[in-house]
Amino acid sequence: AIQLTQSPSSLSASIGDRVTITCRASQDISSAFAWYQQRPGKGPQLLIYDASYLESGVPSRFSASGSGTDFTLTISSLQPEDFATYYCQQFHSNPLTFGGGTKVEIK
Amino acid sequence: QVQLVESGGGVVQPGRSLRLSCAASGFTFSSYPVHWVRQAPGKGLEWVAIISYDATNEYYAESVKGRFTISRDNSKNTLYLQMNSLKTEDTAVYYCARGQASYDFLTGYPFSGYYLDCWGQGTLVTVSS
After folding, report:
1. Which regions of chain A are under pLDDT 50?
2. Which residues of A touch B45 (CB under 8 A)?
3. Between these two residues, B108 and A77, which has the higher pLDDT value?
């Protein structure tokens, strides 16, 4: 199975900060990559698909880039509702696998 | 709007069985593959199983293969997960999710997997004696 290494596992940031989360795949997965946000007690919500495409309804402060093995999610100006846990996922091949998650907390 | 609602969770003893359901609405259920994904308390996401749009293909995580069975009833817009021989390590919130296919833009070939564009709120399964 393809392994995804997500970093950092947690971070503290302030409202308005620029935040970057990275994810590295154990093999080339092209653009078969997605990012999700999960708020406490809720199901995950798709943010980004195909490595860099913003899902409909997701604020434009979220952006992503990458291809192959290295991927990045950026929040340009952190808002109160962005404090959550973020997961990466590859869909290049089965089984689907997820990164370990990054918890974004208030500084 | 697109909605997935899981039900059927609860407390069950090790070795026993439980069946989860996921009711879909707001989209043409029979056109999409659907997945089960679970999350142990305080842990990350673990993919469990997928069933194709027409129920002709299924695929399971190694951790549940031979114990869990995914199925669907397109006439009822409902997805199921039959869980047998439950273990304490199966304790988790179980989510159903709709799968979306995509393609490698360079080759034109589809990827084998799916991204998950709609998730339910989850149902908690606790396996404990």
Report:
1. none
2. 36, 44, 87, 89, 98, 101
3. A77
